[in-house]
Fold this protein.
Amino acid sequence: MNHIDAAEERIVSERLRQKLNEVNAAAQAQLSVVQDHVNFTLQKAYFKCAYECFDRRRKQDDISACVENCSVPVLQAQNLVEGEMAKFQERLNRSLMVCRDKFESAKLQNIKTNAAQDMESCVNQAIDENVRALPHLVEKLKASLAISPTEE
């Protein structure tokens, strides 16, 4: 690889990093309502429920079971969000891997067209498609977690 190719690849890598930062920012912004619901509404309910478990007339095992039972909605919500985000990340990674494979294939074949530009274009398209899917993911999570419009 000559210096020009290496410099071009570094530029593409930096742009890719910037685009991934944009995806993270978009995901955090769009998921904030869901995270607030889990972190505040469900956590608050958990602590209220757990507080009620502490009664001197109860045995320690009963208190522990009660507190554990109180944590179920929070844990289920966290698992749901983490699972959906893992699927989102997996889809994004697969899309980006296709772009990378096309780029590597063009390099192996010594196709000197615009391999770096083609990769960048592919990456931009893949990221844009995945970011466009975020609102649908958020709506799915809101429905699954029964987040009311008043919580938004």
User: Anything to note?
Assistant: The longest helix spans residues 3-53. The CA atoms of residues 20 and 116 lie 17 Å apart. The helical segments are 3-53, 60-108, 115-144.
